[in-house]
Design a protein that fits this description.
Layout (H helix, E strand, L loop, with lengths): L8 E5 L14 H13 L9 E2 L5 E7 L6 E7 L7 H11 L6 E7 L7 E5 L7 H10 L5 E6 L9 H5 L5 H24 L1 H8 L2
Parallel strand pairs: 1-4, 1-5, 5-7
Antiparallel strand pairs: 2-3, 3-4, 6-7
Helix pairs in contact: 1-5, 2-3, 5-6
Length: 201
């Protein structure tokens, strides 16, 4: 496994497309990708996603730091459980190995507001990760896991992830999104160990 900043990086925000899903817990990957795209633009907040020629994802290309490696930010145009196909198409097109792929996704087993950064592992029931592992033929890509916590009471897990954040959570959400974007930048420039030391608190 390479832990360097050489080569192109593919950073994928996992989520579901369309305004109906935009505020859901399952879509934090999209929110972090938007934040990174904003940082990449010459005008912060002015994000220009464009359709990739594969037709399966929207992308923004650029650099997150002066002199840093080239980064392709991506959001799939299909649903979460179909994430693998678009990711595989982009990885093939840009010649990105799995060890230069970063998936940003929601994580039930981590408290809201916290992050865990890791390399490899299973999918823990997450359909987006399951699809990626199947299409890439490996789970050895980086994950920025944004905690959403477990549903309260007896609420169904699927209903919980496909529901909006609470009023209290929405006030804290920008901080988690910002931290997750910082973690992606750190992974690319500092490597896994330093990023884990900083963010896996």
């Amino acid at each position: 496994m390479s832990d360097t900043q050489d080569g192109v990086w593919l950073v994928v925000g996992l989520g579901n497309p369309g305004p109906a899903y935009a505020g859901h817990r399952h879509n934090i990957g999209y929110l972090v990708a938007d934040e990174l795209a904003s940082r990449m633009g010459s005008t912060p907040g002015n994000v220009h996603w464009r359709s990739h020629k594969s037709g399966r994802a929207d992308v923004v290309e650029g650099r997150l730091s002066l002199g840093g490696p080239r980064v392709v930010l991506a959001r799939g145009r299909g649903y979460m459980n179909e994430s693998g196909g678009p990711v595989k198409a982009l990885a093939t097109f840009y010649k990105v190995a799995p060890d230069h792929v970063i998936a940003i996704h929601d994580e039930l087993d981590i408290a809201f507001g916290t992050l865990r950064i890791k390399l490899g592992g299973g999918d823990n029931g997450h359909n987006g990760l399951k699809s990626m592992r199947s299409s890439l033929g490996t789970g050895d890509f980086y994950r920025v896991r944004a905690g959403i916590g477990r549903p309260p009471g007896r609420q169904d897990v699927a209903d919980f992830v496909l529901s909006n954040y609470s009023t209290v959570e929405r006030k804290e959400l920008p901080f988690q999104v910002g931290d997750a974007a910082d973690a992606v930048e750190s992974l690319i420039t500092e490597g896994l160990e330093k990023t884990q030391q900083r963010f896996n608190s």
